[in-house]
């Protein structure tokens, strides 16, 4: 059951030029599963409420973190002004976009800010050293748009069964990545055992639907091996 409470901001982190993480200090963090989300209501305007994925892992128990791309919306503008010691009202945990009990081989497909719940999942697997084999395929426009780049670099060094493939529309010759978009040929060439894996998809709804259709129709993945989340946090 989701509980509602008021939480104090302990830290605001600039992740990229247009993405911020907000860390909340909570006296007793409620149990949640990696991949779940919360609602955030700004106290100076109760009408400003959004559902956002939790980007921290349950293993990072000192705080609860959510991450959002700052847009021209009223919510984003108000969120952009928040600072440490400010309070917000949250309700959590919610959602079923979580890791299964078994330790299957996984693929995470993500675009842009849709990385947030997958960062939580990957961090949980790495911190717990679960042995789960994960390939993350993460699409962005350019290198400056990659959220949690340093986190995933560190996770790959600490955990040999995590492999990150960056896909950029505007590739940088100094950065290891694949050009273009995520497509069936990329999956076939980079993940030879893709038929043995469970796929988690998170990103803008049009991207998620295109990826789901590609996996099912072009790569013949079973429906049960495609888990989707249409990211709401814009």
Concise structural overview:
This protein is α/β, with parallel strands linked by helices and 234 residues long. The chain is built from 5 helices and 12 strands. The strands form 2 sheets. Strands 4-3-6-1-2-5 form a 6-stranded antiparallel sheet.
Structure keywords:
single chain, about 230 residues, alpha/beta, Elongation Factor Tu (Ef-tu), domain 3, Rossmann fold, 2 domains, 6-stranded antiparallel β-sheet, 5 helices, 12 strands, about 35% strand
In words, what does this structure look like?
The relative contact order is 0.17. The protein is of the alpha/beta class. The strands form two sheets. It has a six-stranded antiparallel sheet with strand order 4-3-6-1-2-5. It has a six-stranded parallel sheet with strand order 10-9-8-7-11-12, with helices on both faces.
How does the SSE layout of this entry go?
Layout: E1 3-16, E2 19-25, E3 37-42, E4 49-53, E5 64-69, H1 74-80, E6 87-94, E7 106-111, H2 116-128, E8 134-140, H3 149-158, E9 162-168, E10 178-179, H4 184-190, E11 198-203, H5 205-218, E12 226-230
Helix pairs in contact: 2-3
